[in-house]
Amino acid sequence: MSSPSRPLVALVGNPNTGKTTVWNALTGNHARVGNYPGVTVERRVGLMAMPDGNGVDLLDVPGTYSLVARTREEQIAIEAVLGLQGQTRPELVVVCVDATNLERSLYLVLQLLEFGIRVVVALTMMDEAGASAPDADRLADKLGCKVVPIAAHRRKGLDGLRAAVATTLKAPTPAPRWVWSPSPSLRGKLDTILATLPSGWPSSDATALWALMSIGAEDELLGIPAPLREAVAIDDDIAKPLDDEAITGRYRWLDAEIHPLVSTPPDRRKTERLDRVLIHPVSGLVVFALLMFGIFQALFLGADPIITAIEDVFSWMGDGIRGALPVSVFTDFLVDGLVAGVGSVVVFLPQILMLFFFLGLLESSGYMARIAFLMDRLMRTMNLHGRAFVPMLSGFACAVPAIMATRTMERRRDQILTMMVIPLTTCSARLPIYTLLIASLIPATYLGGWLPVQALMMVGMYGFSIVSTLVVAWVLSRTVRPLRAKRLPFVIELPPYRLPIFGDVVRMMLRRAGNFLSDAGRIIVVGSVVLWALLYFPRPDAATMASWRTQMAASNPGATEDADALERSFRLEQSYAGRMGQAMEPVLSPVGFDWKIGVGIIGAFAAREVFVATMGVVYGIGGDVDEENPRLRDRIRAERHPDGSVVYTPLVGVTLMIFFALACQCMSTLAAVRRETRSLAWPTFLFGYMTVLAWVVSLIVYQGGRMLGLG
Amino acid sequence: MPSLLDIPRYQAAVVRHVGGERSFRRRIMEMGLVPGTTVRVVGVAPLGDPLTLELRCGQISIRKEEAGVVQVQS
Question: Is the pLDDT of residue A2 over 60?
Fold first, then answer.
């Protein structure tokens, strides 16, 4: 990742200390992006210009409170600062220390110093600290490293920080301020541990202490060799006093040395006043509900005109190309495959940009932590994280941005469980299908004279989706091993409320959108082209078409207006997708579907709402129909099986809606899961479990309904 | 000895012992809740759980179940 000629400097800090702002300000946001090994966390390295005209590589390490690790995500910090798992070892670590929360921020600095790492402290939030701000020079004296007060968003103190980094790079490694002195009875144990450390790990008591505190029966750490695991195995009655000794020891030092530097406690009145409203049992929930409603409306309705505009632009481009090129297979490929495929990627951008803008505001204002706090009681009954609320709510607009938003949770298990249930929420692409089927098949009568049955059906589908999302989350978290809910400690920081830094929010939003285009976008374009080919090839030869035309003319004299649409229907029937639909009939008929519905389901894989247009083609009305089209509705009501029985009974309509509610008929969702998990296994699992669930529930509904004489 | 659940809201108390499972106690102690630290319970979530604690210079939130194993002296 980093260039061998430039020194590597790591940037670490507690969450909410303004680390991202510092990184952006120092590097100008030009990053080389990779991944930390074995985890889906971005590893960003940027070039930081130095006073002497050279540069250093600045590595952004995810925010952490401690170097001790139990989960894979927590392990990133120790690996990054020590250069483990094949990474370059940084020559210096810049630590962002929140001036309003000195002791806790400096706990991390003490740990770094114990490892003999060169440290420069960037003192952030100085203006907020006001009178309680410590004197930087006295703090530097205490810590034995340079301390530079900065205000990164106003570009203050950055040159001082660069100069401090330059000087410290040339300085010898500092002596640690607090040193763990293990009891003599532990000495033998420590020597065994040091003897089993993998090469490249620093052989010091600090490393042994890290291993003793981190490695245990239930950890999820990577790259810990078995002998080391054996060497650190200790009983709880030794382990707990050891934890106490190390943690309490560091805080004692901080209480004695650092606490006197803070003359008055920082002013938290602003945050306390806001919290009195924002986490109040009544007003807190009201504000929360209003905020969530606003975000949802923006995604659901606000994005709509932009999405329509994008769709118009792409169909205009398609028409232009079709007008300019001769009629050929290649032109069809270009317009219906490629341009339409690229269009189906770009339409996601408005919602992705909006959602990440909101997430950025929620996160950097400090409100996201309050959401986790407010929602924890509710979400944990399904073993979901409180922070899963916003992504799941967004799922009711569209699963793709919602899946990307699961990054707001740090633990992979929480992320993946949320991703596995988001596609069950009623996204807006399902609505055209529901509208078409309800309007065509459910009688427009009133229950008890005043309750409209059609509207009730729509509300029922939303209710069904919410219940199935929650039930499936609960079941998955109890059955699927990697998703199983361990008793994970819930400790969250409620940071002070702060004004978001607009530039940082926008940069993060654009970065996420870029990730989507370059990564998931490619899969979606390829998938669109493949689907187009399935619905297009093989083309019947001229002789087949000619005989079909004569047959049509003979059986249907005079009906010329729909010749084109009927021809497209015939071609679709002959296509691979058409044949697949027919081949699928043995699994379709038990749930009440015929092969034509099967073709619609295949077409809907591009995006669920495409089901409507595909059915338009299947029924010879043409692909240019929407769910309001009266001819399509009539055609659906009139459709008969070869034996003359009605295809779409109301029961079939309900079953088909249930199928679409539960099935993962959306390749973009799968592409997004592939991108976020960096695995093929999770999207495969998602598609598999949802398809099986959809089919089984459809079977129960359809066969059960028939037994009750409902159709 | 009383736990965090037993002291009235807003009343300062001093942590004496952190019990519970190892990963929880390690995490919460690393966030500054070590024996000798003064702490106050300052809020309860609208649904009755979790709690907000004020300690040192910041606020953290833990669940009631876990607050019950933090022993304090008021």
Answer: no
CA distance A116 to A118: 7
- Report how far residue A538's alpha carbon sits from residue A527's, in angstroms, rounded to the nearest whole number: 18
Within 8 A of A239 by CB-CB distance, chain B residues are: 22
User: What ipTM was estimated for this complex?
Assistant: 0.96
User: Measured between beta carbons, which residues in chain B are less than 8 angstroms from residue A387?
Assistant: none
Residues 6+ apart with CB under 8 A from A290: none
Cβ atoms of residues A121 and A261 within 8 Å: no
Please name which of A496, A367, A444 lies closest in space to residue A633, comparing C-alpha atoms: A444
Residues of B with CB below 8 A from A218's CB? Answer: 23
pLDDT at A561 over 80: no
B32 at interface of A, judged by CB pairs closer than 8 A:
yes
Tokens found for residue A190 = 């420590």
| SS percent in chain A: helix, strand, coil, step 5 | 65, 10, 30
- Amino acid identity of residue B10, one-letter, is Y
Tens of pLDDT, residue by residue over A300-334, are 888 989 999 999 999 999 999 999 999 899 999 99
* Helix ranges restricted to H, A556-666: 563-574, 576-583, 585-588, 595-603, 610-618, 630-638, 650-662
d(CA B56, CA A100): 10
Cβ–Cβ < 8 Å for B33, A254: no
Would you call A65 and B30 a contact, using CB atoms and an 8 Å cutoff? yes
- pLDDT, one tens digit per residue, over B7-59 is 999 999 999 999 988 888 999 999 999 999 999 999 899 988 899 999 987 89
